[in-house]
Design brief:
Elements lengths: L1 H23 L2 E2 L1 H11 L1 H22 L4 E11 L2 E3 L6 E3 L2 E15 L3 H68 L4 H36 L6 E2 L15 H11 L1 H21 L5 E13 L3 E19 L2 E16 L2 H7 L2 E9 L7 H67 L5 H36 L4
Parallel strand pairs: 1-6
Antiparallel strand pairs: 2-5, 3-4, 5-7, 7-10, 8-9
């Protein structure tokens, strides 16, 4: 029974280990990498945050068109000489006081500043949304290029490993000659040197592959090593039929960058209108309702009358008579908090007009600055047109050049394959020397590496052109 539990435990741990390895060694397709990058990339997240800020600014600018309503309430205790808020008389006693109010402010007219600000922020919001789209397009291109660079580095590494294996096979043959003292000892030493050279090439290629993977991991914002799944990846190596002008025309229609720049210009123009509103009077409506309470406030209620001496007298027939008067008696009664709030209620309503007469040319200079921003936005759009057009032309030229180079390298590989085949046979039969053999071998290996690099250089430039056309996905 004990052994059975041990067996179950081992099977369970092996299953967990296999699951963990399958999770860690997950393979990523190009589509997987693009999806992960769109979700994790930090630069894209920053762009999203800027767009969210633009959205909040737009919502606030719309809310600024609404009236401003504020309420206030306070309650306090004052001890010593103070003014009774109920009677406005000076008193010297402990006093509990309270004030409450509700105010409303509403801008009627201010040169359409609030309205134009809302329109400007709406345009900025649209531009930010398009900039997110442009950032996503840039990220998709970057991930695609990084993915292809990993494939390129991986293929080059495989070629360098294959070169080393071929050299090792030749070393086995030369070892027999060397041990039997039937070959040229220098050939054996040269092959050992060639193996060291091939091993160095593997290290360099491995470093290039690692750097390419690190670049891809940075774009994906992952912590684990990336293993590529290229089973469903189709890399068509066909001649590109579109001209640079055709690509540029499609870029004008599909790239979000152009549309975002155009909206920035419109937003800057609205900024000029906002600045001009500083020259116009501002008309606002205000109103309010207020009340207060004082613990010193009292009511005096009549409780009855009595006859009292006034201290005066009159003389009648030589006799002094006291003067009496009727006096009303009062009893003090505190006024309740609620009654005071009702009794002390007051309202105010009015119109305020603010006419700008002189503000140190602030308004004039603000308008001038906004006009400069419009010109800067126009120049930025023109610069974008020129840069993208020149980039397309340069990439298209490089693409055609590398395509022609690829065709030449294909021919070169075929020629060097035949040369290597012949020299390999001659060298193995002792007809040719090692120098001819290693020269033809290196020529073939270098031609294969150059051909692989040319292939991916071409594909990279095709992807860049597809990006400008808006077809990278």
């Amino acid at each position: 029974m004990k052994n059975r539990y041990i067996l179950y435990t081992i099977i369970f741990l092996m299953g967990c280990t296999g699951y963990a390895q399958s999770q860690t060694n997950r393979s990523y397709t190009l589509e997987d990498c693009i999806s992960i990058a769109l979700e994790n990339n930090l630069d894209l997240k920053s762009t999203n945050l800027l767009a969210n800020s633009a959205k909040v600014n737009y919502q606030q600018s719309k809310a600024n068109l609404l009236p401003s309503i504020n309420g206030n309430f306070n309650l306090g205790v004052n001890d010593g000489r103070s003014i009774d808020p109920f009677t406005n008389d000076f008193i010297n006693q402990e006093l509990t006081f309270s004030n409450a109010g509700l105010s409303l402010d509403m801008t009627i007219f201010n040169g359409f500043r609030l309205l134009n600000t809302a329109k400007q922020n709406r345009l900025n919001k649209k531009a930010s949304d398009l900039e997110i789209e442009a950032a996503q397009q840039d990220l998709i291109l970057s991930v695609t290029l990084a993915y292809l660079q990993v494939l390129n580095a991986r293929d080059v590494l495989e070629l360098t490993k294959a070169r080393l294996e071929t050299t090792k096979e030749q070393l086995k043959i030369q070892e027999g000659f060397y041990e039997n003292e039937s070959g040229n000892p220098a050939d054996y030493a040269d092959i050992l040197g060639q193996i060291a050279n091939d091993e160095t090439s593997i290290l360099v290629s491995g470093s290039s592959l690692n750097n390419a993977k690190l670049n891809l991991i940075r774009l994906l914002n992952l912590e684990e090593e990336v293993t590529l799944d290229t089973d469903g990846l189709i890399l068509d190596f066909e001649k590109y039929n579109l001209s640079a002008d055709n690509v540029y025309k499609e870029a004008l229609q599909h790239l979000a960058t152009f549309k975002a720049r155009e909206l920035r210009i419109e937003a800057a123009k609205k900024g000029v209108s906002v600045a001009k509103s500083q020259f116009t009077p501002e008309i606002a409506l205000f109103g309010g309702i207020n009340t207060n309470y004082s613990s010193a406030a009292q009511l005096f209620n009549a409780t009855g009358t009595s006859i009292i001496q006034t201290g005066d007298f009159v003389t009648v027939d030589g006799q002094d008579l006291l003067v009496m008067t009727e006096q009303t008696a009062f009893a003090a009664e505190r006024i309740s908090f609620r009654d005071q709030l009702d009794n002390n209620l007051n309202t105010v309503v009015g119109v305020a007009v603010n006419v700008p007469l002189f503000n140190g040319f602030r308004a004039k200079n603000n308008v001038a600055l906004e006009k400069i921003r419009v010109e800067e936005s126009v120049l930025e759009l023109e610069r974008t047109y020129i840069d993208i057009k020149n980039n397309i032309a340069q990439v298209h030229f490089d693409m055609e050049a590398v395509y022609k180079r690829h065709e030449s390298l294909e021919k070169q590989v075929l020629a060097y394959q035949e040369s290597y085949r012949i020299n390999d046979i001659r060298f193995k039969n002792g007809v040719s020397n090692f120098l001819n053999y290693i020269t033809s071998k290196n020529n073939l290996d270098n031609a294969k590496v150059n051909l692989a690099n040319a292939k991916y250089e071409y594909l990279l430039r095709v992807k860049v052109l597809d990006y400008y056309r808006g077809t990278v996905n």
